[in-house]
Amino acid sequence: MHINVHIAVGIIITSILNYIFNLTLIEYIFILLLSFICDFDILFAKLAKNQNHRLYLTHSLIPSIILLIIGIIIVFFFDYNVILLGALSYLLHILIDTFDWGTNLFYFPKKQHGFKLLMSLEEIEDLPHYLSQYKNPGSFFDSKYYNNTICLMIEIILFCSMIIITLIFALEYIYFICLYFIGLAFHLSRHYQLKRSERN
Hints:
This protein is an all-alpha fold. It has one domain (3-199). The protein has helices at 3-21, 25-34, 62-78, 82-100, 121-125, 127-131, 137-146, 149-169, 177-199.
């Protein structure tokens, strides 16, 4: 899913956690940031195979496992759970990414795992062929995403849920919703840039 979706999910989860644990501003930022920080690797997508940023270490289970271990140790010795909650937030991002295109869960095989619901079996089996039909490989993924009604409906539902849950559980942190619009603007500008590059 796109970064704005992960930001929405992150705000929803962190706002609920704020209601349960009464998070400080720093704790709220930490957990929220871990819900979408791994998508910053898209800035280096051109260096990845097929320009697919999900093949990087950041989109594997390894960072989540390391954070979970650190979080469990800190809970055990210091009775402080924010690192563990942040690790779960990061892990949730990776698991969500298995639904659309899949992600490189185990990193070293350099293979995407997951449900890959936005691709047909033929596209999965012969992905290089389908990517070669576009000037930019990213255009294939972009067109599949924005032409999928379910993806767009999920975005709308998560946006509305984010607003409602923040108003109920974390009104003092409502300004973080601005991050959603920054993520959305990034993906929309990338979408129109890819469309222009395919037309030229």
